[in-house]
Structure formats: structure tokens, C-alpha cells
Design brief:
single chain; rod-shaped; 48% helix; Beta-Lactamase; alpha+beta
Amino acid sequence: MNFRGKLLAVFALTVVLAVALVAWTVSSYTDGAFKRLDSQRTAALVAQFQREFSRRAEEVTRRVEGIANADETLRMAVDLGRNPTDFSAHVDDATALASAHQLDLLELIADDGTIISSAQWPARFGYKEEWVLEAVDWAAQGAFLKREDVAEGVALAVMAVRAVNVGDKKLFIVGGRRLDRDFLASLVLPAGMRALLDQVGGARAGPAANNIPPSGKDSGADSIVDVSGPFPQAEKLMPLISRAEQRAGEASDTITWTADPASAETFHIIPLEGRHQEILGRFLVGSSRREEVDLEKYIRSVAIIVAGAGILLGVILSGWAASRVTRPVEQLAAASRQVADGNWNIRVKEKSKDELGQLARAFNQMTQHLVAQRDRLVQAERVAAWRELARRLAHELKNPLFPLQITVENLLRAREGDPNQFDEVFRESAATLLAELATMRTIIGRFSEFAKMPAPQLQPVDVNEVIRGALRLFDAQFRAPDKPPISTKLDLDDKLSPIQADPDLLHRAVQNLILNALDAMPAGGTLTLRTRQGVDGIQLQISDTGKGLTKEECDRLFTPYYTTKQHGTGLGLAIVQSVVSDHGGKISVESEPEQGTTFTIDLPGRPPKND
């Protein structure tokens, strides 16, 4: 990945993370705020329910007491006292009294628990209601919640009990008002909330047994009502109600009515307890999550839009920043490559005063120092090279000068001595002089040849053929019966690509290396020539199994006129290095005493251009 891509990735990741963090924070805060608001509204609705329940309980108590204190009730009690077993005359009294005092439920019960009259279910005449016979001060007992069997099923009602005493007889007045959808309609519901009533308490089993058979359904989904009647989707509430039954307390959960998340609704269940703290029903408060879901959806949409805009802005900024940063860096990289290729006079433009500008100025100062150091180094190397060359040449010329001097001195002594011996001394001295002068011409010729190495004439060259051609020159030497045997081993890459080179110069270099290897194996051995295809060119190796070289000898091996041979000139390997260098390659040597020597030449496919 390039710098621009990395910069874009950093910008995009930063924007996405920042937007995601903000969106998550806002969503979390919004969720918490909605939960707090939901709790507050639920608590307010429950408080309103309790106030309405208390108001209705006071109203029921007052109306039941009104019935107990009415004259007709006293007359009924007196009549029942005279005829304790004849209740037929009062079968319809409860209905009239309930209508007159606006009660939904009303039963008149004798002191033995027998129902004398029932307004909500006349068929209950003659059945027993033994719970009224409990040792309770009904006059001090306020209204309470109770489940009542009615003709259509079971009703949850706010009930009150009062007793009318006539002599030693009692008449119990049990009256109340239903806790149903009319009660729910009296509640003021905030927007997005609704109230439900579950009229079945405890385990949802069979109907309460009050010594009569059930006449309707009192359990299941039909017992859940809202202001309009039975709740149509009550089945989805049953798992939540079951959990509330298991906990025997409050419970809450979220129900999603459809596939749309906005249809979700959070329900809080508050148990409704009777006179003995038994759970007779449940008040369900539903709070719609549509506003929360819509707000979260809006937050996500805004976050996506902001993230997209941020990423687009990141693309623009990363492009601008990358162009501002990468263009100078690319210029520096290009200039560095030119310096690596040998153009040390390259300069980059200093366009700014920031870190990039400082880097450009430092690069220019570096190239200036490199040029100055190169010039000083080249001058010093030239002086050292000429000094070394003069020393080597003086050493080579001094060897034949000494015989020349001795020969001339012998001629002078012979001339001054016996004239008869002069001719013989002259002939011998002349031969010596000519031989030594020939030696001097050879030394000077080789020096001139090394100094006049021609420039390579490039053309496509098959290095494998160059190696085979150089080996053919030494076939006779390899097969000479009077010399130690030397075997050759070729390991040439058949897929070697041709390179641009001078075939004559390469042939000469390979020939010198082969000759050097033969000289290193006076007792015979193995000569190995190997080629390999490289990434940017080819590699050539020439190995022998000779006596090897020390590290010091390897370090000085390519110095002109340095030789480890008794009769060598020290120019062969220097010429090889010159040829390799002119082709843009490099040569190295690996050797250890008595372990043989390997010369490795790396040549590019095309030599670099020299300015």
C-alpha cells in the first residue's frame, strides 16, 4: 500500500471510529433517556391507577354503606329475621338496589352464608359464600380487590362488605364495581402508552370454585382487556405474564409485534393483590418504542451520512496531503536514484521551509559534500595510482637494467684488456643486451596495453558460447600427456538469456581466469565453470581446486602488477576487473588456503550508460 492509500485508510478509520463513537454515545444516552422517561411515565401511570383505584374503593364503600343504612334494607333484615328460611320474596332485591346505588355487583347474604339475592348472577340464589363468615370487622374493613364469578365468566372487582344486625341475625351486603375496560378508560394515558388489565391472577388454571360450576372462561388470553375490550394480540403477552407468575412480582420485557422494529413495545407488569395479599390480577403498562427506534434510525442515518461525508473529505484531504508530501519525497527518491547511478550533481528544489524543505536542503548539501569528497578522493586515488604504477614499473624495469649495466661494464673491461678476447665478449654481451632490451619492450608493451583498454562494443552475446570458446583454446593443454591431468566440469544454464556485451573482451576475461586457474593447479585438479540466470542479468563462476589464497592475497588480488606467481606480470586479473567494470558488473573472489578459489562475475543484461 502506498503512502496515499495509508493516509486515506488513516483518515477513513479515524472518521469512522469518531462517528461510530459519537453515534454509540448518543444512542446510549438516548436509550438511557428513553428508559428513564419510560420509567417516569410508567410510575406516573401506576400512581394514577392507584389513585383511581382508591377513589373507586371509597366510592364502593360509601355506596355499600348507603345500602346497609337504607330503610328497605332494614325492613328486609327484619323480615328475614321473622322468616329465616323463606328467601324467595327477596330474590330480585339485589338487582334493584344495585341499580339504585350504581353498583355493578351486589349480593345479599344471610348469616349462614347463603346467597339470598345476586344482582350479577341471579342463578347463584341459594349457594354459599362462606368467606363472609370469617371473623372480620367488616364495618372497619375498607374496599378490597376480589375476583367474582359472573354469568359470562370471571370479573375482577373492587368490593366492600357491610353487615346489618337485627337481633341475633345478620344480613351481609356485598357490593362492588368491576375493574374492567371502563376503569381503564378513566385513566389519562400519555402519548405512546397504553394500559391493559389481566383479570386472572396466580397460576392460570381453572376457575375459582365457589360451590358452583363455571359458566364461562376465566383464564387465557381472553382475560386480558384494554379500553376497547379483549386485547387482540394477547397471545404474545402470555410468555411475559408466565414469567411474572413465576416471579410473583413485577416484571418487564419488550415485545415486537411485527417485523418492523418500530412496532416494539415495552410492557411493565404490576401485580394486583387481594385482601390476603394473593395475586388476583395484573395491571400492564405498555410503552411504545417507536419514537426511540425512529430516533435511533435517524441517528444511524446521520452517522452514515456524516461518515460518508467524512470519508469523502478524507479522500480529498489525503489526496492533497499525499500530493504535498509524496511529490517532494518522490523527487528526492528520483534524485537519490540518480546519485546512485553516479550523477552527483543533481539538485532538488527547495519549495518550503517545513520539514520537507529541510530534507531537500539537507539532500542538496549532502550531494555537494559528496561531489567535493569525490573530487578529492579521485585526485588522491589518481596520485596514489600513479605512484603505485610508477613504483611497479620502476620495479619491473630495474630487473633488466642491472644485467645491462653488468654487460656494459664487461665490455669496457674487455676493451681495455686483451683485444683478442673482445670479439668473443662482445658477441655474448650483445646477445645479453638484446635479450634484456626485449624484456623491457615487453614490459612497456604490456603497460601500454593495460593503459589502452578499448571501450566495449556492445552486441547480443551468449555467455555459454563464450565459455565454450575459451575452453577450446586449452584443449591441448588439458590433454597433454607430459602434464598433470586437469578435468573440466561445465554447469551451464541452458535457459540463459543473451546479454549486451563485447564478446572479444568477455572472451579475453574468461581466458585470463581459466589461465589463472590452471596456474593455481600445478599438480592437476578440477576446473568448474558455472552460469546462472539472475534477476537483472547473469552470473558466471570459475572455480579451481588449487592451493587457494589467504585473505590478504584476496584483498590485493586485483591491484595492477600485484601477483602471487613467480613469473607473473600482475596485469591479468586487473584486466579482468577492468573488463567487468566496463560492462557495469562486479567481480568477487572466495578462497581459503588449500581449499581452492572461486571467481564470481555478475553482469547486467545491459550495461548502464556512461555520461
